[in-house]
Amino acid sequence: xxxxxxxxxxxxxxxxxxxxxxxxxxxxxxxxxxxxxxxxxxxxxxxxxxxxxxxxxxxxxxxxxxxxxxxxxxxxxxxxxxxxxxxxxxxxxxxxxxxxxxxxxxxxxxxxxxxxxxxxxxxxxxxxxxxxxxxxxxxxxxxxxxxxxxxxxxxxxxxxxxxxxxxxxxxxxxxxxxxxxxxxxxxxxxxxxxxxxxxxxxxxxxxxxxxxxxxxxxxxxxxxxxxxxxxxxxxxxxxxxxxxxxxxxxxxxxxxxxxxxxxxxxxxxxxxxxxxxxxxxxxxxxxxxxxxxxxxxxxxxxxxxxxxxxxxxxxxxxxxxxx
Length: 323
Prior knowledge:
This protein has about 325 residues and is α+β, with helices and mostly antiparallel strands. The chain is built from eleven helices and eleven strands.
């Protein structure tokens, strides 16, 4: 925004207004069912949030179900499974962790898949792992979806995360999944069932490889839509080296076009924040108070530094700190 003098004037909002925008952007504001109800609401929520993290930790319920239950009053786990396993409108892949992602956004995962296939990440990944990858793909192509526990393996391999040795096929399947050569078709319990992408991706889904510019613009829009108000590092969370420069370029473009607004939070006037211009209308007193029980992996709190400055809440989950 330009003043008459030509000096750039950045909107200033209060921390309370920033919180209001953030909570409403997350579907945790003052509307009881912001995404509606039923299975269609689950799809709408994941598409709006951009992803829902999958985690093995389960106390009351696993994280992905908990996140959706917090936003959809009539949520049932069967709704998420149906969208993934039957409708194929969601798929599993890597965001900052294993996540459910909208199938409509599949093409924007392809750059990471291509990058992963080109990397030799571990010195011990030798000919044996490559051979296991070929065997696994051949078996899936001939016999159909594969569950790891159904594989009889005579070879174990050391795990790179200090876990006990595991089947070489487990390493092979992980590499194939990260490379986009297999996909998770469903889960039995919490065990992944793998199949080939051509059997899983609907014909009408755009699979064209995006350019780096398209990818950065997609991530900026997706992040700001879900976060509401964000600082620059929060827009390339856990992707510092490969995404920071492209994100800055995308932001400059959106600032020029007016799609994105640079602003300041009054309590932190020296730090730039960004929001979609349309999101500023979400500021305003919450009409009623609602209590939400959040998973440690909820999209609202997963960025711990962000949670600290935005809500003055320093959050540490005990399973990720030394004993």
